[in-house]
Amino acid sequence: MASVFRSEEMSLMQLFLQVEAAYCCVAELGELGLVQFRDLNVNVNSFQRKFVNEVRRCESLERILRFLEKEMEDNVEIVKLEKYPETPLPREMIDMETVLEKLEAELLEANQNQQTLKQNFLELTELKHLLKKTQDFFEVRDDFFSEDTSGLLELRSTPAAAAAKLGFTAGVIKRERMIPFERLLWRACRGNIYLRYTEMDTPLEDPVTREEVKKNVFIIFYQGEQLKQKIKKICDGFRATVYPCPESATERREMLDGVNTRIEDLNTVITQTESHRQRLLREAAANLWSWGIKVKKIKAIYHILNCCNIDVTQQCVIAEIWFPVADAGRIKKALHQGMERSGSTIAPILTAIHTRMAPPTFNRTNKFTAGFQNIVDAYGVGNYREMNPAPYTIITFPFLFAVMFGDCGHGAVMLGFALWMVINEKSLLAQKSTNEIWNTFFSGRYLILLMGIFSMYTGFIYNDCFSKSFNIFGSSWHIIPMFKNSTWNKDVLLDNTVLQLDPAVPGVYSGNPYPFGIDPIWNVASNKLTFLNSYKMKMSVVIGIVHMIFGVILSLFNHIYFKKYINIILQFIPEMIFIISLFGYLVFMIIFKWCHFDVHSSQSAPSILIHFINMFLFNYSDTSNAPLYLHQKEVQSFLVIFALIAVPWMLLIKPFILRANHQKARRMVRDGDQFNFGDTFVHQAIHTIEYCLGCISNTASYLRLWALSLAHAQLSEVLWTMVMHNGFNSSGWAGLIIIFIIFAAFAVLTVAILLVMEGLSAFLHALRLHWVEFQNKFYVGAGYKFSPFSFKHIIDGTSEE
């Protein structure tokens, strides 16, 4: 049970393993997940370690697995098992390498063949479209020498040009390149060409990217060899594919028939190749997930073995491990199982190491406490075996959040959302979402659950539900007696916009306050805000001071556990005297005033603020502010003097006692640690000043509880008045539709502003109150986290290593 309030007791041991058994023993420890290995080869380059070749082989296998997974991502489903496969033996890695390398080679060959076949299919398809479209082009050949081709017309007028034969180039080009292609041809050839093009009816598939590509068929008529070479270079520059095209229609038809035959044959071969490829992928998909887990485990084991030393005889692996003392039996059992699995006859040896190194901090958690422990660790991992704030944070964090967020309605919505996540957590976990925001909310589902519950609790105390009050027990104030007593009548109602209930009138006040929370009559009172401000401000101060005093009390348990008894006398006691004498007394005055003055005597109640200021000024001559109780002057003077004595008590005595203890120890042992009195005194002065001023600033910081609670209540009231209230002004079927629309807007604004934005704001403020105002009283948070070698963490991607 002590481990709940402190981190686990850790042990550092040296582990000796036979080389043949090292792999299996480390594998068993990885399955257990309770051992942290120290890197004994920090100064050795990662490429010079013993098992670097095995790690590289694992990385090669991971590359093959990534390749296979990429090939399957479109249309092959990877089979995942419910349980992780067992860690394979080293010899199984060789078999797995052989299978995966063979599978990769076959798949690469199938992909290459398929790509070649699809490239041929693409070219034949393009040629098929080209042969069909060129028939139309040749039909307009006789119109080539027209008014639009004046350059060629001038050439034709010369005898040499007339005897020349008209040539042409046909091909295919991507559609988006057609316009610049046409423009460049016209300019480069100075208009001495005739270009015709048309779009292909169906898009084609690129054999490399497997994306659809839209292309155009073109034909260029020209005259002369020089233009032919120029056109060829431009086609190459635009990556246009040029195909041979017969001039006669008969030859084109014969070629088209041959192309169609070849396309049919290619389709058959492509189908067979794809079938073979899919068969390979389906066979691999059945084992791909298991292979991936096995390779990760093997790689992790060799990574750990690279952190170990090997003796000069090359027969023994030496490791240093941290582990919880409570789990020593389980670790020894795991090592024995690893020895048996490897077939070794030499048992692993564990030897305790005495070290001055600080052990890692390990706080054992479950799915409920993990979220609260993460809140604490986000500020800083605790020192080894110091008090863990997480068990107290389970209650105080959602409570302080709820003080700022208190509303029954909003708390119920938050509770419903958290309950949905908790009830469906198994199915939601199985989805393994990669959305970071969702994973953050889901990880804190139990924290949100408690925040919702506490928000409903404080909502009942504030008697606030969507800015409206419940009247469950009946108000303690009644209006009718004011009319019966003739204090109020019609004339009074007409002459006054605001009326005040008089508790002196019999029957107006029942004599007992509302049984639980704020009386619902305050919801209609004009001075509601003044009353709630006073109440919430004082409540924030009381909660804050109690929270801080509790933090100082927890520091006592640290001093006792670490046997720093001097800190109890010279630090804990003066700290308690200081905070209780001043701020504890402030709490006493608030509670005393609440209990002593009721509705009948509240008008004569003195001001706590004035009394608290006069307490430090030693000023008791103000007759307008009556004392709270008899002998108040003597009590307050004693408390102030006592608090002032506590300051030099903390500041001066401890450094001198530490110096005296060091000098005494130095006389007994000549070679001792150096002691710097100046540093010690400065450190103690900083601590004293920080604590004394921190008590003041931290108390003021807790007023954020009041400020955010006020803001939340006012925003809730604005939303109700400005939005939801308007839906009640209409009646009939039209009113039904209007209230439906208005409620939808009200719900959206409530969730977006009050639940998300205000909820996040209250969460961050509660976080700050715990990190700064509470934990600085006892929590150092300068340790380092226990990072065990765990297959589960590595596979899930949550390893700290």
From TrEMBL:
<keyword id="KW-0813">Transport</keyword>
<feature type="transmembrane region" description="Helical">
    <location>
        <begin position="637"/>
        <end position="658"/>
    </location>
</feature>
<protein>
    <recommendedName>
        <fullName>V-type proton ATPase subunit a</fullName>
    </recommendedName>
</protein>
<keyword id="KW-0472">Membrane</keyword>
<comment type="similarity">
    <text>Belongs to the V-ATPase 116 kDa subunit family.</text>
</comment>
<dbReference type="GO" id="GO:0005886">
    <property type="term" value="C:plasma membrane"/>
</dbReference>
<feature type="transmembrane region" description="Helical">
    <location>
        <begin position="443"/>
        <end position="462"/>
    </location>
</feature>
<keyword id="KW-1133">Transmembrane helix</keyword>
<dbReference type="GO" id="GO:0007035">
    <property type="term" value="P:vacuolar acidification"/>
</dbReference>
<keyword id="KW-0812">Transmembrane</keyword>
<feature type="transmembrane region" description="Helical">
    <location>
        <begin position="394"/>
        <end position="423"/>
    </location>
</feature>
<keyword id="KW-0406">Ion transport</keyword>
<dbReference type="InterPro" id="IPR026028">
    <property type="entry name" value="V-type_ATPase_116kDa_su_euka"/>
</dbReference>
<feature type="transmembrane region" description="Helical">
    <location>
        <begin position="732"/>
        <end position="757"/>
    </location>
</feature>
<keyword id="KW-0175">Coiled coil</keyword>
<dbReference type="GO" id="GO:0046961">
    <property type="term" value="F:proton-transporting ATPase activity, rotational mechanism"/>
</dbReference>
<feature type="coiled-coil region">
    <location>
        <begin position="58"/>
        <end position="120"/>
    </location>
</feature>
<feature type="transmembrane region" description="Helical">
    <location>
        <begin position="541"/>
        <end position="562"/>
    </location>
</feature>
<dbReference type="Pfam" id="PF01496">
    <property type="entry name" value="V_ATPase_I"/>
</dbReference>
<comment type="function">
    <text>Essential component of the vacuolar proton pump (V-ATPase), a multimeric enzyme that catalyzes the translocation of protons across the membranes. Required for assembly and activity of the V-ATPase.</text>
</comment>
<dbReference type="GO" id="GO:0051117">
    <property type="term" value="F:ATPase binding"/>
</dbReference>
<dbReference type="InterPro" id="IPR002490">
    <property type="entry name" value="V-ATPase_116kDa_su"/>
</dbReference>
<keyword id="KW-0375">Hydrogen ion transport</keyword>
<dbReference type="GO" id="GO:0000220">
    <property type="term" value="C:vacuolar proton-transporting V-type ATPase, V0 domain"/>
</dbReference>
<feature type="transmembrane region" description="Helical">
    <location>
        <begin position="568"/>
        <end position="592"/>
    </location>
</feature>
